[in-house]
């Protein structure tokens, strides 16, 4: 197994099927990758959506809501691929993401992870704008060498927001992330995005500053 896609979901059943379908419909051999879906104790129809994709996914159901960082860590720990790609349940990936990102990593052995540009989309899936993944980094759509993630200790469960920035700082202090200038990820912009919660962002920004002192 070369690649593990880890999709995390907490009460995003209305988006989850699209995320899973995008992972299934990759221009990449299904024998070379797996799809893990982590249900972080959702109270909506998430389990039903996951059940409808049995045979295509490896389901992980958590009895207690533990938060995005820990849910991702559980998925990564159970992944068997050499590389791992995180996807949020309300987002989805372009059909060539696995093929292109894995090719870059295999061709550039000095790279430890590769990110990509991404499209900001609205609730209906319309593209609002394209963002540079290096200038405006996000947590998902990045293909990491899994061993390197374990080496830095995975995601810090203390961070309930900005977890991607905290992890990236630790990762880049030791390893190398390069960005591909192709839009391969679809990031859904809506009112429920964690990054739209100003108080949370302020709290975890300060926590990150304190950690870096």
Describe the protein's architecture and organization.
- By secondary structure, the chain is α/β, with parallel strands linked by helices.
- It has a single domain (3-212), classed as Spore Coat Polysaccharide Biosynthesis Protein SpsA, Chain A (Alpha-Beta Complex).
- Helix content is 34%, strand content 26%.
- It has helices spanning 13-24, 46-51, 68-78, 97-107, 146-152, 163-172, 198-212, and strands at residues 3-9, 33-39, 58-61, 83-88, 92-93, 113-121, 127-131, 143-145, 177-188.
- Strands 1, 2, 3, 4, 5, 6, 7, 8 and 9 form a nine-stranded mixed sheet that branches.
- The longest helix has 15 residues, at 198-212.
- The termini are far apart.
Q: What's the helical proportion of residues? A: 25-40%
Give the topology string: H per helix, E per strand: EHEHEHEEHEEEHHEH
Q: Structural class of the secondary structure composition?
A: alpha/beta
CATH homologous superfamily title: Spore Coat Polysaccharide Biosynthesis Protein SpsA, Chain A
Major pleated sheet: 9 strands, mixed
Specify the CATH class. Alpha Beta
Report the mean per-residue pLDDT as an integer: 91
**Which parts are unreliable, with pLDDT below 50 for 5 consecutive residues or more?**
199-212
Query: In DSSP terms, counting alpha (H) and pi (I) runs of 4 or more, how many helices?
Result: 7
Number of domains: 1
What Rg is obtained from the alpha carbons, in whole angstroms?
16 Å
Terminal residue distance: 40 Å
Task: Let me know the number of strands.
Answer: 9
Strand content: 25-35%
CATH topology: Spore Coat Polysaccharide Biosynthesis Protein SpsA, Chain A
User: If classified by CATH, what would the architecture be?
Assistant: Alpha-Beta Complex
């Amino acid at each position: 197994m070369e690649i593990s896609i880890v999709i995390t979901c907490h009460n995003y059943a209305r988006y989850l099927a699209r995320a899973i379908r995008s992972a299934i419909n990759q221009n990449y051999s299904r024998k070379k990758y797996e799809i893990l879906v982590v249900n972080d104790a959702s109270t909506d129809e998430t389990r039903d959506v996951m059940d409808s994709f049995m045979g295509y996914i490896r389901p992980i159901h958590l009895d207690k809501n533990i938060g995005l960082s820990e849910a991702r860590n559980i998925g990564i720990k159970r992944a068997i691929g050499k590389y791992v790609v995180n996807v949020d349940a309300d987002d989805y990936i372009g059909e060539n993401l696995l093929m292109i990102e894995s090719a870059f990593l295999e061709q550039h052995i000095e790279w430890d992870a590769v990110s990509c540009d991404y499209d900001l989309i609205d609730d209906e899936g319309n593209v609002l704008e394209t963002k540079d993944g290096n200038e405006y980094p996000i947590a998902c759509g990045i293909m990491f060498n899994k061993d390197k993630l374990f080496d830095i200790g995975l995601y810090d469960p203390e961070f309930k927001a900005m977890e991607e920035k905290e992890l990236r700082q630790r990762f880049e202090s030791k390893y190398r992330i390069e960005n591909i200038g192709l839009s391969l990820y679809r990031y859904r912009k809506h009112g429920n995005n964690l990054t739209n919660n100003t108080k949370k962002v302020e709290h975890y920004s300060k926590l990150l500053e304190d950690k870096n002192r």
